[in-house]
Amino acid sequence: IYKPLEYWQLNHGVTSTAKKRHSGSVFTFKEMEEATLSFNDENLLGKGGFGRVYKGILRSGQ
């Protein structure tokens, strides 16, 4: 799930990059860009009504 950092600063008063919320993780755009190698087509899993879905690997290896 991606939400701009401003959302978390305004609504939750937090600024760290990945936050647990309702058993999902929230990442910054930069983290997602790094994990997907700049949204490389080789990491594209599919397309749907809400946009494209990419696989990615975080710095932690997850």
UniProtKB/TrEMBL annotation:
TM helices/strands, residue ranges: none
Keyword rRNA-binding annotated: no
Signal peptide coordinates: none
SUPFAM superfamilies, alphabetized: Protein kinase-like (PK-like) (SSF56112)
InterPro entries documented for this protein: Kinase-like_dom_sf (IPR011009)
Keywords: ATP-binding, Nucleotide-binding
MF terms in GO: ATP binding
Coiled coil, from the record: none
Keyword ATP-binding attached: yes
Protein name per UniProt: Protein kinase domain-containing protein
Organism listed in the record: Nymphaea colorata
